[in-house]
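Open question from group meeting: does this chain pack into something compact, or does most of it stay loose? Before anyone orders reagents, we agreed to write out a predicted structure and look at it together. Recording both the input and the output here so the notebook holds the full record.
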Amino acid sequence: MFGHARRTYHVSSTHVAASDESGGGRLERPFASIRFAIGEVDADSVVFVHPAHIESVGADNWDWKNSGVWVRGLGWGDRRPTLTINAAKSISMKKTGCVMENLLFLCGVADQSVVVQVGGLPAQSDNALLNCEFRAIGGVRPTNYVQSFGDRSIVDGIKVLSDPAVANSAIGVRHNIGDQSVLRNFYFDSCHYQVNPGLAPSENVLGGDGSFIRAHPSQNRVIDPDSANAGFCTGPIAIRIDGGTIAETIKDSIGTGQDVSVWQIYHKGAQAILVSKADGEAGAFFNGGPPSTDA
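Structure tokens returned:
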């Protein structure tokens, strides 16, 4: 899978010989931090982050030095590499063809604007965030967990466990600037999906493939598209609403010319999908399945 890599590097905070020094990153002398590694390694390299690695995201933003760098966490569950967010700084893949995979993020900064940014300007495209988990800690949550910039970004296999006690849900993934971007195979608890309002027309896809959104009455929305976006498709997605009513399950207008297709399953109650403006508008397609109390 990584046969194309120019070089492989290693990161492990638990290794006795770990050190953030130029010329390191070998298996027998790994880097001590991902932050140092992404500012050091060659383009088109793979960085293996070892199980039980721990690291804090503190005073500075994280920026990639080169394009084509794949940061891959090893281990599973709580043995995955764990990044604790201690300051309102972002981890930003502002290059081309970069990947972050299989990492656990503990998010403890209230109203942080964004935790991970996938891509940057439209030219900083073809980046991916794969099989990562985000957890709110300390009774707070960020504003955005993941923000997708650039063309052809992929966010796949993401799990976001936000805090249902905080009013107005956080954004699990937000598509911002860019085209032909995809979110699929996701699990959201107490957060929602959004396309940045006011963008120029673009084609972004929210794909189901077994995705799940668990919503709480403290939330004000579940899926938040924007009328400027075409080619928006959701489903199949299971939506579980734990009591109460969410006034705008699908928020904002669904503009003429969009393809909007939603399959939903409810665990509690018989609340219908509520579209705030344009359900049935010419050019929009809405497919709502019957509520289920035993899903």
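Observations to bring back to the group:
The helical segments are 34-38.
Residues 34-38 form the longest helix (5 residues).
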